[in-house]
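Lecture notes, unit on protein representations.

Consider one protein chain, 219 amino acids long.
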Amino acid sequence: MGTPLTDDKNKLVSEVVAETEGAETSGGEALKQKKKKPPRKESLKERLQIAESKAEENYERLLRVTADFENYKKRMEREMNDFRKFANESLIKEILPIMDSLERALEIEYEKDADAFEGMRKGVEMTLKGLRDSLRKFGLVAVETVEKPFDPNFHHAVSQEESEKYPENTVTQELQKGYMLGDRLLRPPMVVVSKKPETKVEAESADHEKGSKIKVTVH
């Protein structure tokens, strides 16, 4: 059986051991809790910034889609306008030779039976006028030619002739009418264009050069 002093010593040791074990247990659990701490949640300011960024992206995407749609609408509108404007182009091209024939018929001069010709002429003129009026409703307009400056974009020159009446490069004759369909050249007119008359010196020089060439060729 132990002495009172020994018993008190053993009791003190037991209490110290118990306190040490309790401290270790408490520290371990605290460390575990620290390790298991949940991740930090985003602040309200950060969430607001993210929402604003997404809203801006969606708005820019909406602007792009809207712009593409507006361009599509404009392109389709232009194509439809062109289709309506030029849908009868093939038909009009088929009719133009008929107009040419009627115009040539009016240029014929009959001497034997002037009265019969005059009646026929009036009938052709009325037919031609009606045809022109009908085609004008579809946008067909004749190209101006005679006494106008020659324009290779609208006129088809088939020959040149010397002229003192008109300035150089002026349309002097129209051999076949040309037509515009809206703002498009449907058929260019066939024209004769003026050129500057040669002077006597130029003509003699040309004849001399021609003769010299012939002489050289002979030898």
